[in-house]
């Protein structure tokens, strides 16, 4: 590697803002624990053959072609770490590209889907919107456990598949991925949680739901498949978008599969077809679901309430209405016509979440085409009467949770209930006490079908929400490179020229190289010496002068330049 390359890159790195430097180091997958002392260390490491090869795998075909052709490369901090101040590939990078086949990835745009294909795509999009809404409703109820790969953990995955939210685990992963790229789901620790945008999305109409998802998918597409107009390249060109990345074909397939779930058409294969609502998006226009919605079944805003404590929706229920209905009833079947069942447990959960009997009755009266059947009205009245019979609050004196009731018999039953052993309730006078938090105890009692309610210091009921929407905060990992950047900045003093000369001298000594040094003599004269560098210590360079065959020792502070002989 030429020292000039490393120095040029070191100076470029030092001139970057902290944000750009962080983006560059993150893009090059630099570890925070790397042992670099200054920008020269960073430049040499980034220009090592293995590091260059790793960086080139991250670049799209067009950027690679520009680098190989000696043209200026625009955008992207990874590319910025491979070019000189003129925007062209550094010599070592150009050499690495010399033997790479960068054949054109041009492809014809896909054909427009016919009516039958468009109908299938619309049905697929509708199914996707409904299924993702189910995932978000589940995440709003309680965060979904997540494994290291990002997939939903086994217990939650099994439950969602049993509820027929998705056909298989792979489709469930795709739904979660769609929710993530659209900002509706957020990975928090070892869970998937719904965001505030996700909570709004489940209540939005079909048109807004699809447009938000489609926009999120397009905005998240990798650079190599994006078009200059802001859309995407023809899918037939995607396979060659990242020619040096062995993992790209699988990722490209995933992105195309997500597009198919969105109803954008039959995007896989060279003979793929796109829908009428996909084409403007591919060309850079804003998402418009008008043509898609025209092919979907109309939403309904009324249901039939039955004497058997069920509600039957004659078509897809308007999202905002369905979300609220599912807060007080369990959905048993879901299709264009869905069935929901009320029970004491579901109504108790609704009351615990902040609903009142009057609010539930008013909502159902407005929603029902058949009024409120007597069995349902009786169940609601009985559940509301019993609700709050068990109160859970925090003792202000010691901070422990207390469970009380006006009916001592129910406390006796709770005290010996084996299913409640995990919350470790113990008798304390006329109450039960535990170290477990108030909300966790109230939830456990509610799930065990006790009429429990959490109350605050004044005795007012506190709504229980097992899950809640979050506003994603900045990722703590986004600051992980700050100590490294600070160290590089601190080592980059005002006299970077002197630091670089000293580095070149140390390198020459290690290689016992023949170098020409220019020295400013004490009398003001400037002289050049051709030395075989042999040592450096105490601020002095030692080497054999080839011209007169003598050993010289020169003060490093007087050396003005170093170059190979």
What is the overall silhouette?
elongated
List the total number of helices: 23
Q: Please identify the oligomeric state.
A: single chain
Mean pLDDT: 88
Radius of gyration: 34 Å
Helix/strand structural class: alpha+beta
Sheet with most strands: strand arrangement = 13-14-12-11-15
Count of beta strands: 20
Protein name: Helicase XPB/Ssl2 N-terminal domain-containing protein
Organism: Microbacterium oryzae
Pfam families: Helicase_C_3
Task: Provide a brief overview of the structure.
By secondary structure, the protein is of the alpha+beta class. It is 42% helix and 15% strand.
Describe this structure in words.
With 565 residues, the protein is of the alpha+beta class. It folds into 5 domains: 3-97, no CATH class; 111-293, no CATH class; 311-378, no CATH class; 390-450, no CATH class; 493-564, SH3 type barrels (Roll), CATH 2.30.30. Helix content is 42%, strand content 15%. The protein has 23 helices and 20 strands. The protein has a 5-stranded mixed β-sheet. The longest helix is centred in the first third of the chain and has 27 residues, at 115-141. 35% of the residues are buried. The model has no long low-confidence stretch (mean pLDDT 88). This is Helicase XPB/Ssl2 N-terminal domain-containing protein. It comes from Microbacterium oryzae. Pfam families: Helicase_C_3.
């Amino acid at each position: 590697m030429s020292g000039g390359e490393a120095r040029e890159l070191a100076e470029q790195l030092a001139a970057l803002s902290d944000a750009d430097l962080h983006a560059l180091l993150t893009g090059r997958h630099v570890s925070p624990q790397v042992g670099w002392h200054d920008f020269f260390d960073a430049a040499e490491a980034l220009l090592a053959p293995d590091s260059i090869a790793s960086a080139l795998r991250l670049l799209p075909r067009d950027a690679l072609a520009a680098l190989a052709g000696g043209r200026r490369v625009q955008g992207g901090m990874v590319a910025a770490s491979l070019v000189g101040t003129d925007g062209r590939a550094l010599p070592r990078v150009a050499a690495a590209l010399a033997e790479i086949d960068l054949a054109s990835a041009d492809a014809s745009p896909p054909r427009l889907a016919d009516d039958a294909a468009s109908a299938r795509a619309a049905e697929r999009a509708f199914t996707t919107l409904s299924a993702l809404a189910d995932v978000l409703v589940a995440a709003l109820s309680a965060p979904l456990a997540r494994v290291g790969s990002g997939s939903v953990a086994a217990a939650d995955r099994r439950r969602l598949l049993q509820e027929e939210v998705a056909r298989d685990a792979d489709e469930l992963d795709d739904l979660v991925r769609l929710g993530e790229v659209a900002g509706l789901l957020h990975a928090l620790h070892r869970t998937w949680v719904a965001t505030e945008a996700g909570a709004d999305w489940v209540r939005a109409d079909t048109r807004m739901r699809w447009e938000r998802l489609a926009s999120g998918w397009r905005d998240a597409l990798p650079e190599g498949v994006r078009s200059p107009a802001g859309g995407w390249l023809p899918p037939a060109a995607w396979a060659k978008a990242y020619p040096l990345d062995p993992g790209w074909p699988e990722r490209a397939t995933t992105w195309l599969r997500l597009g198919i779930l969105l109803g954008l058409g039959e995007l896989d294969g060279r003979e793929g077809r796109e829908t009428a609502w996909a084409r403007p998006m591919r060309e850079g226009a804003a998402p418009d679901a008008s043509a898609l919605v025209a092919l979907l079944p109309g939403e309904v805003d009324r249901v039939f309430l039955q004497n058997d404590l069920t509600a039957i929706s004659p078509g897809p229920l308007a999202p905002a209405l369905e979300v609220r209905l599912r807060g007080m009833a369990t959905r048993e079947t879901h299709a264009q016509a869905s069935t929901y069942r009320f029970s004491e447990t579901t109504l108790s959960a609704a009351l615990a979440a902040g609903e009142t009997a009057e609010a539930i009755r008013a909502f159902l009266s407005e929603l029902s085409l058949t009024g409120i059947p007597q069995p349902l009205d009786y169940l609601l009245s009985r559940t509301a009467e019993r609700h709050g019979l068990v109160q859970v609050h925090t003792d202000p004196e010691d901070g422990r949770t207390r469970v009380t009731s006006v009916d001592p018999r129910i406390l006796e039953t709770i005290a010996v209930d084996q299913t409640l052993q995990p919350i470790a309730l113990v008798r304390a006078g006329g109450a039960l006490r535990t170290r477990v938090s108030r909300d966790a105890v109230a939830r456990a009692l509610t799930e065990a079908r006790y009429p429990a309610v959490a109350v605050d210091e004044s005795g007012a009921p506190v709504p229980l929400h097992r899950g809640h929407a979050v506003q994603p905060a900045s990722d703590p990992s986004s600051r992980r490179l700050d100590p490294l950047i600070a160290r590089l900045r601190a080592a980059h003093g005002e006299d970077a020229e002197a630091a670089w000369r000293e580095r070149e001298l140390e390198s020459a000594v290690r290689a016992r190289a023949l170098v020409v040094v220019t020295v400013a003599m004490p009398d003001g004269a400037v002289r050049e010496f051709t030395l075989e560098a042999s040592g450096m210590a105490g601020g002095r360079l030692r080497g054999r002068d080839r011209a007169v065959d003598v050993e010289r020792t020169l003060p490093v502070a007087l050396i003005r330049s170093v170059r190979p002989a």
